[in-house]
Structure formats: structure tokens, C-alpha cells
Amino acid sequence: MFSFDLLVNAVVAGILLGGFYAAVSLGISVTFGLLDVANIAHPVFIIAGAYAVYAVNTAYALDPILAGLLFTPLFYGLGVVIYRIYYVSFERAGEQSLRGLVFFFGLLFIAEVSLILAYGVDYRLIEAPYIGRSVSIGPIGISLRLGVPCVVGLLLTLALYLFLAKTFYGKAIMGVSQDSLALRLMGANPIQIKTIAFGLGMATASLAGALLIVIVPIEPSMGREYIGRVFAITVLGGMGSIGGTLAAALILGVAESLTSTFSGPSWALAVSFGILLVALAVRPAGLFGR
Amino acid sequence: MKWLWPVLIGCSILGAGVLLTGVVENRYVYFATYVILQYIVLATAWNILGGYTGYVNFGTPAFFALGAYTATFLMLAYKAPFLVLLLAGGLISGLLGLGLGYLTLRLKGVFFSIATLALTVVLQTLIINWEFVGGAKGLSIIRPATILFFSSYSKFLFVVMLCLAIGAVAIARWIEHSWIGRGLAAIRDNEEAAECMGVPTLKLKILATTLSGCLMGMAGVPFPWHVTLIEPGSAFNLDYAVNSLAMPMIGGTTTWVGPLVGAVLLGVAQQVATVTISSELNLLIVGVVLVAFVILAPEGLVGLVRRLVKREHA
After folding, report:
1. Nearest chain A alpha carbon to B283
2. Using CA atoms, how far apart are residues A31 and A243, in angstroms rounded to an integer?
3. Which of A276, B26, B194, B255 has the most other CB atoms within 10 Å of its CB?
4. Full-prediction pTM beyond 0.90?
5. Chain A: closest CA distance from residue B19 (Å)
6. Which residues of chain A does B122 touch, with a Cβ-Cβ cutoff of 8 Å?
7. Tell me, what DSSP letter sits at residue B241?
8. Structural domain boundaries of chain B?
9. Which domains does chain A possess?
10. CA dihedral over B248, B253, B255, B258, signed as positive or negative
11. For the segment A88-117, what is each residue's pLDDT rounded down to a tens digit?
């Protein structure tokens, strides 16, 4: 059963998967890691993004990743609206954590049931030229279905990293996560900065959704599986560190790939949630936390 | 004698329920009331932890399914009688609750909630990979032909769930009126201050998680016989998490009345919507009502009524 080729292939597939997981987790890294808003509905919005891409792809045969990019402004707007409601109802009253969490849980449920009402529970998939092809380097086979999302995921991670590190608004977002009072004293409006950051986090959901539907067929309740993954990655990556998120995503991808190669795919999900439980119980600051 | 009236009321509700089984034959009545009673147990159990101490548990399906699967396992392996199944289901889920109680030492707020969600998925994965209790496909369960003096098994399950519901509400009411309830409320308001004032916070939290888990597990025990099928997808259904949290939130989380009112209202509304519209749409209604309440009426219906009464007096 055990062979070296199998091991190498599993590790490579895991790294590719990790690139995709990074894209999925970036939104939570920003909203939960930096803004401290526990948006547990985020994975369902990724699924919603995937359905949006599916609709455009089947109607106009548009490339899924391009379609995902086109939807980012819409998701940005959605994020702005959700954050406004959240801010007015919970954050301003200082009751964000628990009632806010219930609010997002309700949103998760509404979004999921709406998707079921609109599309049913059948699996949906799409067509793209790179789906179903693979390239091989020696004994290692790389399927483009995983390779393309990995590259896009890495580019997205890099883009977000550069945005946060180099631009004015990016620095302001990092500032608001550290000390929003100080930001206010510097003459910037922390609420406006947080709105932008939350919108950005949500915008990544449509692109992540596009990557998701390239990798696997989707159905509405898949979002639940990703709740554990994204929070495991965010916590493990040290809450809001983009580099940490990428590293944690790669670790989780490889761990899951090895598990599904050597013990069967039905165990893969337990790995991410198991890692999450252990990370929460043993080291809540994450591997790369301060 | 302040316990006399509640005991009398509880007994008379139980008596009325038993009497009903002699009069009404329509099976749907028992099926529907069973579901509503089950939600009374789940909502009340959730509230003992979530409402009184403020620890939001998304793991209701884990406890519920653990009770159901414990019962299935004991029935398959040892053909154990129903009462044993009920107690064992409560015990095992209570032990899981005990573990969760120790977890509160390290995890607070949002992290605790995410951990309960993780717990649900890990447990579901274990069950999916456990072939003896049916694995991913599940098992069909055959109801025994005769049971005690009831003319059908649905009636028996209805009476069992009625007992559990009365028991759960009684426990919640007792906790609320004892020093335990005041201790739990102190944890909800400020855990560190409570600890400093000498409230044994860890003991109380563990009591709350264990009791809450135990009740949820017991609510899950009759489930395989109720639907005559046990399968991971339906036993670990996220609907239980949403409902058991939405019902107290809508009713009001600070008293035992809240989850009861919320479960009855939302439970009846869902049954009506399932029959007249569709089962997906009724879930949408739950989600929308939950979000509306958490934004607009955070104290729930009980809080709204209290505010109205106060205004009349003022």
C-alpha cells in the first residue's frame, strides 16, 4: 500500500490544496483575525460565490476565475451592508461577541436555505479548458484542476499581503486592528476603515468560490465543512497574519491530503477539525501568533 | 410549600398527555407533538448553558446524535430495554458535556462556540466511519410491535418525550430559583468578578455543560424509533443547532419560560409551514425570525412582555 511515489504525490496535491485553502481563509483572516468579527457565515458566502460563477459559466461559458473576479465588487457591497448592520446592531452597543455570533449563524442558515431553494441539493459542476487535464513532472502528476486554483490562491494572498503592507488603507486596517482609538486620534474614521476591510474580506469570497467550483462540484451545505477549515487555518496562522495564514493553509492541505491518501477520504474532514480543536485547546495564539 | 403548585401542574400535564393517548388515534398528532416536545427539551437544555452562563453552544447536534447512537449501539449489541437506553444516552452525552466544561477553562466566547462546531464535525466523521451502527448509509430501525399498555409505539414515544420535556423544564426552573442559577448569572455578567467574589465558576460551568449535554442526549435517544431510521446526516443535522439556539433567543434567554415559549411558537409554526408550504421554506422562516429577534428584540418575547407590563404600571 505504502510507496514513495504515492507519498510524494500526496504531498504535492496537499500543497496545491493548501494554496486554495489560503484563498478560502483570507476573508476570515481579515474579518476575524484583524477586525475581531466572527463571521462564521463566510464559508457559505464562498458557496454563494461559487453558485454565482456557476450561473454565469453555464449561461455565457465565461471562464470561472474571470467570473469570480467580476463578482468581487458585488460581494464587496454585500460585505459593506452586512458590516453596517452588524455595527449598528451589535458593535456600537458593545455586545458584539455572543449576539453577533448568533447573528452570523442566522445569516449562514438563511444563505444556505436560500441556495437550496434556488438550486436544490444536487451537485453542480462547470466546464473550463483546464479542468480534467494534468501535467506530469517525472513521477509527480499535477492536475490543473488543483494547480490553477493554487496559483490564483497564491496570487490573491500576495495581493492582499502587499495591500495591507504598502497602501494607506491597508496600513489603516492593520492600525484599526491594533488600536482603533489611536486611529481615531490620527484623524481617520475607524468605522469606515473597518467597513472597507470587511468588504474586502467578503470580496475574496467570490474568487474563492470560483476556485472551489473548479476543484470540486458544489452543493449548498458544503459551507459547513469549510467552517472548520477556515477557522483552523486562521487560528493556527496566528489570527490575521497573512503569511501565517498561508503557512497554516499549506500544513492543513498536506495533512488532509496524506490522510485521504492513506486512510480514506472520509477521514480527511476530521483532520482539520481535530487540528482546530487541539489548536484551540493547547495554543489559541496559533503557531505564528504573538 | 412553594414547590407544590409546580409539581401539581407538571403531573396534571403528564396525566393529560396519557389521557390523550386513550382518546386520539390520529398518528400525525403524536408525530407533530413529539417534534415540538423534543424542541422544548433541546431549547431548555441549550438555555441552561447558553442562556444562564452566556456560553453559546453550536454543538447541539453532537449531543443529540450521541444520545441517538448510544441507544442504537446498545440496542444492536445487547438488546437493552428502553429505560436503560435512555439513561445510557443521557450518561454518555453528559460525559461529553463534562469534557466541554473543562474546555471552558481555556476557551471563552467565540472560540468556545467554534470549538463546539468542530466537536460536531469530528463526532460525525467518527460515526460515518463506524460500520457497526450503519456508517454513512445508516440503518433502518424496526419498532417493537407492542409496548407496555400503549396501543401504538408513537403514543409511547410521545409520552416519553412529554416526560423529558416536563423534567427538563422542571430542572431549568429549579436551577434558576436556586443559588446555582444566581452563580451562573454571575458568570454570564462577569466571569472574573464572579470568581473573585468566591463563586465556584468552574464547578458551576461544568454542572451546566454536563446537565445541558445530558438532557440533549436523552432527547436524542428515542429519535431512531421516531423516524425508524438512524443516519449521520439527519442525526447531526444543523437544524438542531439553529433551532435549539433560535428558540431561547426568540422566547428570551434569562428565564425558563423563554425557551418553552420559543419552542412552542417556533415548533408549531414550523409544523404548520411544513404541511402547508414546504420544509425548506420553514427553515428559512426560522433563520429570518432569529436574525430579526437578535437585532431588534435581544431580550426575546419574555423581555418584550416585561417591558410592556412595566410601561402599563408606570
Report:
1. A113
2. 16
3. A276
4. no
5. 39
6. 270, 273-274, 277
7. H
8. 9-236
9. 4-282 (1.10.3470)
10. negative
11. 888 777 665 678 888 888 898 899 889 988
